[in-house]
Amino acid sequence: MKKILIILCIALLSCNNKNNVIEETIESEPIKSEKIQVLNIGFFHFGYSSDATSVDFDENDVKRQEEVRKLSQLLVRFNPTIICLEYIPEIDDKINQAFKNFLMNPKELNTQYGELSMVGFDVARICGLDKVHGIDNHMDYNYSVGDFIENSPELKNSIDPETYLELTNNPFKGFPEIEKQNKNFDNLSLLEKIKLYNDPIMLDYFLNTNADKLFYVGIENGFNGADQAAIFYQRNMRIYSNLNRIKMTKNDRVLILMGTAHTAMLKEFIKRSPKFEMVNTLEFLK
7-65: per-residue pLDDT in tens? Predict the structure, then answer.
């Protein structure tokens, strides 16, 4: 009887080992995607910006330009075949003429369009591309309407002022490391700044700053905040539509370089897309 039990145990162990081998083989097999690969990376604007969050960055400083070159080399590893930048398609000819001029003298970075020309042009040059694409769309909206209501004694936020003020005054609640890095932002290298801006927590922060916290703002029965946030959402929907206007195949690899608030919104659209698949941005910032 003991011999029979020993034989059964050995047989069961053998079967389990075989199953384990099969499972490990399945897990180790690379998954080939049929979707267009996208590197969706957010930047702060190197020059003047009317955005909710601005950064002091001297694009003409030699050290800063060296940092830009190193950053471009990291992004080149994605090997993009299409590069999309934050400018409206209506000035595509103007931007691409500037790109062609840069190709004639690539030793000097083009600072005319901030990060778009400094990084976007340089990556396009190294990858051998002959043009870049604008996908932006301009719409005016007031992301400060909540602050205006809170600072006006005659007005009252009748929706949820507590949550609005919490998002305004304590945006990194529960994320002390991100808060620490953000407070030390000016002392970070360019690469460290871009890494921070593309952290998932920061992407949520930029959505809140530019739009979502306005869902908690309104006078009486009105939708003052939500109506302004809707314009921001609409603008980004149009940006996404402009992206889809570009003719591409499944063999293309798309680099999108925009302000981080747009990056955060595009992330939401792309991750549900049957057409696109995002790569891990932070993997290309190592």
Answer: 333 343 443 443 333 233 223 334 467 899 999 999 998 864 445 454 666 777 788 89
251's tokens: 């063999």
Question: CA-CA distance, 9 to 46, in Å (whole number)?
Answer: 68
User: Looking at the chain, how many residues does it have?
Assistant: 286
User: How wide is the angle at C-alpha 116 spanned by C-alphas 254 and 62, nearest 5°?
Assistant: 125
- Enter the pTM of the model: 0.84
Q: Where are the domains of the chain?
A: 1-30, 33-286
Tell me which residue of 94, 119, 124 sits closest to 109, measured CA to CA.
Answer: 119
- Residue 164: Cβ-neighbour burial (10 angstroms; 0-12, 13-18, 19+): buried
Tokens of 222: 């009105």
pLDDT digits (tens, 9 = 90+) for 209-238: 999 999 999 999 999 999 999 999 999 999
Q: Tell me the pLDDT band of 70, cut-offs 50, 70 and 90.
A: very high
149-162 average pLDDT score: 97
- Choose among 258, 256, 246: nearest CA to 279: 256
